[in-house]
């Protein structure tokens, strides 16, 4: 399928112990582009989730448990090759679920999926062990060294915004470390996780190493999985409130969690910042993937000397974005993921006006013609006139919105940017080298960029503080979560 009007309704089944299995119930996947039904998804009930967890345990206790780091690195590289061999199928699947522009699916989502597997193949291949020679007195010593062991069966629960990218960001290190996984993709984006099951099996992973259960959160596959006594760890990306719920679900069993949660990310723009480059960078950080990236900026603090010029520039660029079908030439921006999410974003667009915003661009639902009337389209929106007391500046909208707020001094800007419950990402825009480092370090976030945004090295720590998450993943940081260590102390 290479155009945007699929005629065939795809059936998406659960993948358990190396086979695709039906669910007791099914639900429809609706395209956010035009409201068409594009897939029928088989929902996993309690029994299917049980079977998936048991299959993962058997794999872990069996042949998979005997593999070496080198074996698994080689498997990860074959998976990366397999994704690339079926690159356009993954692109089509991602577009079918999300409606995002084809260039974005190619350059960000699918390319990064293959890169995730290769990066964690490198990480596991080069990971050393911690060791210390301990002076025990009297000319004697002891050797301490820590060996890594996989957690066992890991539940991987992911959202809909970058479905394959975020899934593989967790599956790759989990498998690299020798775990078996049960994956619960978002109900909104079930396709690429299903396709990945074929690739992982073709790459030679034993049955049960990678399982997929489809469904929703509460009262469905998500909750059945997190409540399951056979789970040894939960790695979750999604909303902060869902993270809090999952934490309660696993608390009685003291299951380790890694949480990558919501954000309300700030950009701080000083008036010595080169205007064009800053406008380019900010536009990307505000509107990429229709603002549906956890790292996206929603608050922009601008030094007063540059405020009017920057606000006019951002508004012009927001108006210049082209909303349209994923394959239409010139499309820069897709729809939101669903009507439900659009209703949430729309409620914030209305609230901003009640809170006193001046709307410089967007502010509502665009008129895109009858063809797209059933889609979840929204206008990229730019506000001034709000401040940090407003809900629109405090709460995560997760859409293409920019609140532009002036400041005078560096101290004030740091205070405003850090005045939030979240702590995922920030960007600082300035030509002053010392100030760049000073302010970037002062941001209470996991990821702080200078004169750029979303530039990633997969070995670098990724994660957030406060309501934005628990723990760091990336490179060796992922190894910490996906393994337990046993320290061996030998008296010499
Ligand atoms: P969500 O929390 O609604 O859902 C995420 C996943 O959790 C889905 O698969 C869902 O079915 C499942 N789920 C929901 N309730 C559950 C429960 N009680 N038990 C088990 N599973 C449950 O999030 P979303 O709307 O899909 O994604 C958007 C959110 O994700 C935003 O808040 C965004 O900031 C965040 N996000 C964070 C990062 C990051 O790296 N920090 C990355 C991407 C998205």
TrEMBL record:
Residue ranges of every copy of the Aldehyde dehydrogenase domain listed in the record: 22-488
MF terms (GO), sorted A to Z: oxidoreductase activity, acting on the aldehyde or oxo group of donors, NAD or NADP as acceptor
Enzyme category, top tier: oxidoreductase
Active-site residues annotated for this sequence: 260
EC number(s) on file: 1.2.1.85
Entry keyword set: NAD, Oxidoreductase
Family named by the database record: Belongs to the aldehyde dehydrogenase family.
PANTHER family (alphabetical): 2-AMINOMUCONIC SEMIALDEHYDE DEHYDROGENASE
Protein name, UniProt field: 2-hydroxymuconic semialdehyde dehydrogenase
Species annotation: Streptomyces apricus
């Amino acid at each position: 399928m290479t155009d945007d009007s699929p005629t065939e309704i795809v059936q998406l089944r659960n993948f358990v112990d190396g086979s695709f299995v039906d669910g007791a119930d099914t639900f429809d996947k609706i395209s956010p582009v035009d409201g068409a039904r594009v897939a029928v998804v088989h929902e996993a009930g309690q029994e299917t989730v049980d079977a998936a967890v048991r299959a993962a345990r058997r794999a872990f206790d069996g042949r998979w448990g005997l593999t070496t780091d080198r074996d698994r690195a080689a498997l990860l590289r074959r998976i990366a090759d397999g994704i690339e061999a079926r690159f356009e199928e993954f692109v089509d699947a991602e577009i079918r679920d999300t409606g995002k522009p084809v260039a974005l699916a190619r350059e960000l989502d699918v390319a990064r999926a293959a890169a995730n597997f290769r990066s964690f193949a490198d990480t596991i291949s080069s990971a050393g062990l911690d060791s210390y020679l301990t002076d025990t007195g009297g000319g004697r010593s002891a050797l301490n060294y820590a060996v890594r062991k996989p957690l066992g069966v890991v539940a991987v629960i992911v959202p809909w915004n970058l479905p394959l990218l975020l899934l593989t960001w967790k599956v790759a290190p989990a498998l690299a470390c020798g775990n078996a996984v049960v994956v619960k993709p978002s109900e909104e984006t079930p396709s690429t996780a299903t396709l990945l099951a074929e690739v992982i099996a073709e790459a030679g992973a034993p049955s049960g190493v990678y399982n997929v259960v489809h469904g929703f959160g509460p009262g469905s596959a998500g909750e059945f999985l997190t409540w399951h006594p056979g789970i040894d760890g939960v790695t979750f990306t999604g909303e902060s409130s869902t993270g809090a719920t999952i934490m309660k679900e696993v608390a009685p069993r003291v299951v380790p969690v890694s949480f990558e949660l919501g954000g309300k990310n700030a950009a701080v723009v000083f008036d010595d910042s080169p205007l064009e480059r800053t406008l380019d960078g900010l536009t990307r950080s505000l509107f990429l993937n229709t603002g549906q990236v956890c790292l996206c900026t929603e608050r922009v603090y601008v030094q007063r000397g540059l405020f009017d010029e920057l606000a006019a520039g951002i508004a012009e660029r927001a108006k210049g974005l082209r909303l349209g079908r994923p394959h239409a030439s010139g499309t820069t921006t897709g729809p939101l993921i669903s009507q439900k999410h659009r209703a949430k974003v729309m409620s914030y667009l209305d609230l901003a006006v009640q809170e006193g915003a001046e709307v410089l661009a967007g502010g509502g639902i665009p008129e895109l013609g009858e063809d797209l009337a059933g889609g979840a389209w929204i206008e990229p929106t730019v506000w001034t006139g709000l401040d940090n007391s407003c809900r629109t500046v405090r709460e995560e909208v997760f859409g293409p919105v920019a609140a532009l707020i002036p400041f005078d001094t560096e101290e004030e800007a740091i205070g405003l940017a850090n005045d939030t419950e979240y702590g995922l990402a920030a960007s600082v825009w300035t030509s002053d080298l010392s100030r760049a480092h000073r302010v970037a370090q002062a941001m209470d976030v996991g990821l702080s960029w200078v004169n750029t945004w979303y530039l990633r090295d997969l070995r670098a720590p990724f994660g957030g503080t406060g309501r934005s998450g628990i723990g760091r993943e990336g490179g060796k940081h992922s190894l910490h979560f996906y393994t337990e260590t046993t320290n061996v102390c030998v008296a010499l």
